[in-house]
Design brief:
Length: about 425
């Protein structure tokens, strides 16, 4: 009995030590991946008083960050420079330094973590994934080192909940769902995140926390698909779906507004729901809603192109394949520079397949960077939005409703506008040359 009590006390020491380091803000934090999630999270953790090292494979990002230059709007240059000067944050491309950190935020780098894993570390996965990843994939890889979860190291999951461009909520003010592998890991997760964000939301297991994030994304994907389908049906009936939604959302209960668009963008909504579709096959269960929503949303770019082609033909008497078209907005979302999975790329490609000459204007994306999926578009530059420039295009297609665009000038100067976001309607701009799609 005495032997077992001593053994339990020894095993508890790593958890107690790490808890003390968290309480005193001396726990060293390593964040892997410094993109739209990793950098704001690193900044929030550093601002809470922890020393943070951010790891990224891109040496240019590392150099910029260490010079106090942020490439993410959610983290200002002034705030980043202050954290760097105070020694709270630094960036590194040397992943061997991971062994010096007491906490990790991991994005597909478990094997890298395992090479430097040491006793008394808290390892946290934040990447959106299917339920079971943390326990079934991450834990075995880490335990292959000979160290045991809950004894030598501690493992948790906390899904990211970033909303780029949202000025009302940031990393520290969005409630944080947390879970841990065992009671010690759960307590450490609560202690750490509770010192960084205003509210934590503990759930019972890592798989539950993983399911929470998928549920949030699936909820949006399915509802966006619904209004996209309604848009097509109501348009055939001569009904404005935007007017319908605006009226319906006045109901103070039982309705939540979602809005149609030219297709889905970003990583969360077009891709993440299908993690559950993949996992459900293990249980021989269908995910019909998810798959149908994906089918509808993926079909929206072609629907938009068909509406544009019809408008060019009927209103301008021009063969669509001979038209010069300006797309407004390359980013997938309003007022951010994020182009991941943007439907604008699909719109450009579909139009050019028809023979149209296509250019774009985006105040947040001055030039198209190299992308794996759309390599042929690399280097194209955003066109100036002026009366002279607009006069050279047969039609304008609004794909993203950035606030910085002068829609009144656009409405005055463009011959034909196809608006997928109701950007003009919301501003009271109407006319025979404006078509909603």
């Amino acid at each position: 009995m005495e032997h077992h009590a001593k053994e339990a006390a020894v095993q508890a020491e790593p958890a107690k030590l790490l808890a003390r380091l968290i309480t005193t803000r001396k726990a060293r934090v390593g964040t892997i991946g410094l993109g739209y999630v990793g950098l704001p999270l690193s900044a929030a953790v550093a601002a809470a008083g922890f020393p943070v090292t951010g790891f990224d494979i891109d040496p240019d990002k590392v150099t910029a960050l260490n010079a106090g230059c942020s490439y993410i709007a959610a983290v200002s240059n002034d705030d980043l420079a202050k954290l760097v000067q105070q020694g709270r944050f630094r960036a590194s491309a040397d992943f061997s330094e991971l062994g010096q950190s007491d906490l990790y935020y991991v994005e597909e780098t478990t094997r890298t973590i395992a090479r430097t894993l040491r006793s008394g570390q808290l390892v946290v996965l934040e990447s959106t994934t299917y339920p079971g990843t943390t326990d079934e994939v991450v834990r075995p890889l880490l335990e292959a080192t000979g160290r045991k979860s809950g004894v030598d190291f501690f493992l948790g999951f906390s899904p990211e909940r970033e909303d780029p461009g949202n000025r009302h909520f940031g990393t520290a003010t969005i409630p944080k769902v947390i879970a841990g592998d065992g009671s010690d890991a759960q307590a450490l997760m609560a202690a750490f995140y509770g010192s960084v964000v205003k509210q934590i939301v503990p759930v019972s297991t890592n798989a539950t926390a993983e399911a929470v994030k998928l549920t949030e994304n699936i909820f949006r994907a399915v509802n966006i698909a619904l209004v996209n389908e309604l848009k097509v049906v109501y348009d055939a009936m001569g009904i404005d779906v935007w007017e319908v939604i605006d009226a319906a959302k006045t109901k103070p209960f039982g309705f939540m507004p979602f809005y149609p668009g030219p297709g889905l963008g970003g990583h969360c909504i077009p891709i993440d729901p299908f993690y559950l579709t993949w996992k459900s096959r293990e249980y021989e269960l269908p995910t019909r809603f998810i798959e149908l929503a994906g089918e509808i949303n993926m079909g929206m770019p072609r629907y938009v192109i068909s509406r544009l082609a019809e408008a060019i033909d009927r209103r301008l008497g021009l063969a669509p394949g001979r038209a010069r078209i300006l797309i407004i907005g390359l980013a997938y979302k309003k007022d951010v520079p994020d182009i991941r999975e943007s439907p604008s790329f699909k719109l450009i490609e579909l139009l050019e397949e028809r023979g149209s000459k296509v250019a774009y204007h985006d105040p947040h994306v001055p030039e198209i960077p190299a992308t794996r999926e759309h390599a042929a578009l690399k280097g194209r530059k955003s066109q100036e939005l002026s009366e002279t420039t607009l006069g050279t295009y047969d039609a304008v297609l609004i794909s993203t409703d950035h606030s910085a665009v002068d829609y009144e000038a656009l409405s005055r100067s463009a011959r034909l506008i196809v608006d997928t976001r109701n950007a003009l309607g919301r501003r009271g701009l109407t006319g025979a040359h404006i078509v909603k799609a």
